[in-house]
Structure formats: structure tokens, C-alpha cells
Amino acid sequence: MIQLELQNLKKYYASHKAVDDISFSISEGDIFGLLGPNGAGKTTLIRMITGIIFPDHGSIIYKGKTFDPVEDIFHIGYMPEERGLYKKMKIGEQALYLAMLKGLSKQDALKKTKEWFEKFEMQNWWNKKTEDLSKGMSQKLQFVTTVLHEPELLILDEPFSGLDPVNSNLIKEEIFKLNKAGTTIIFSTHRMEQVEEICKKIVLINKGKKILDGELAQIKEDFKEHIFKIGFDGELPQFESSTSTLLSQDENVLSVRIHDEASPADVLKEYLSYGTKITSFNEVLPTLNEIFIRQVEEIKTTPAFSDTI
Questions:
Q1: Sign of CA dihedral 82, 190, 186, 21
Q2: pLDDT digit string (tens) for 262-274?
Q3: What is the pTM assigned to this prediction?
Q4: Rounded to 5 degrees, what angle do the CA atoms 223, 229, 230 make?
């Protein structure tokens, strides 16, 4: 079932097109990557999804109905990149206050806050003020206050910023647990490599426009260039391949591009026929970063590019 659908969203600030006719949908239970460089329009999109600002054009459909920022926001958790904690407030009181703002009773808020504080080993922080916390500790607190009310849709904007590897893995594990329990997650970042670890579906935007979206695995499949890495032992026999073009050699690893009329099996068979001892044979799929750069460069070369900025 489609949980969230954006239809032709536009948001302009004077002559700047922050979001320029973007459409995509997110199904229930997805971990969805919202990708793009800084200034691409990701935060503006999120602010429209959460009702902080309204689109100049287009529609937001939540669970089959027009998004209602008054009612639907109770089912959404949003962790912004710019953290919004009260610096002078004790963190225990702050977590309770924010949970109750999301509709929890004081009793339920206290119960869930204690559970999350124990899970993240934050019990001793209860009476500390936010201003006394490190950036990483503040990040953990922000995550806890975002998920206390068990949102149906969780939006995380650069959730690993400022975290060390141990706490990054802790947050990542909790994201997977929440998703397994049924929470739909939007993960917004400019760090393409993080999305490859976490997300199955993505939308890639740049300068307010959607570049591509879909299943991550299928996108990589669509952009692959039939490049393979061939590992071998011993001396490489001298021969001119009829099935592939040699791109590079790094010690005992070759990088080759397979000809259109050949198959991977043809290449492997040919190398084996010349007595090569093959130790590995793997296809090289492009990274999201490589796909993004390629798409942006293609857009720049089109005559209409200047009209889309």
C-alpha cells in the first residue's frame, strides 16, 4: 500500500525554484532514501511533507487522503538536520514534554522515555541540560525524542551527523528494528554511500528537480557498463581477447569491459582456454555517487538545462 505520495510539488522562493515539479511515492514499510547534494531541495521537501511549510503547487497524499498537517503529524516523527532541542531544559523533562506534545499521556511518556534511555545508556543524563551534552550525545537524545511516540512514518535528516562509529551503528540498528516493526522510514542525506547500506528504494534530486527514482538494485543494474574484475594467479598469458577490452591491470586483478555481443561466460571461458588461473570474477556495479555525477553531467549538456535552474 502507498503510504505517502507527492504529486507535482513546487515551492519557489522569489525566483529560486527550491522544489520544481517533483513527484514520487513511498510504500508502507519502505526504507526510502531521499538523496541529493546540499541545496538540492531535500529539506524543503521534508518541510512540506511535515506541514511546516505549504507547497505553491501540487498535492501530498498520506494513506490515500490529502495530507492533514493537524491530524497526520501525530503519526510522523521528524528528526531535522538542524537540531531543535531546548538548551536550558533538563533532558529527561524535555523528552517527556516532546512525547506528550505528540499525544502520549504523561504515564506512557515516562514509561517509553525510561525504556529508550536505558536502551541508549542515558539514565545518568536525566537531570543534565542539553547545553552540557556533546554533539553525539545530543544526537542520541534527538533520535529518542523523535521515535518515542512510535511514528508510522519516520523522517531522518542526516541522522549520523556528529556520531562516532559505535553510536552510528547503534542508531542504524534501531532504524532497522523500527522498520522491521512496521515503521516506514525516509532517510535524507547527501552521503550516497550511507544510503547504499540502508535503503532499497531512492529518489535522487538536484537543484530542485528529480533526476531519477526507483529500486536501488534496479537503478544500479540500469547504469552498469558491463565491467568485470578478474583476479588471477601466476603469469597472465599474452593474447588478444575477442570478448572484452582491457581497461586496467592492478597487480593480479584485471578490469575489463565485455563486448556487446559477448557474455560473462564467454569471457571466463576464453581466459580459461589460454591457461589463466582465475581466482575471482566479479561484475563492477556503479556507485550511487557515480550514477549521480553521470546524470548531472548529462543534464548539463542538454539545451534546456539553463531553464531548469
A1: positive
A2: 999 999 999 999 8
A3: 0.85
A4: 150
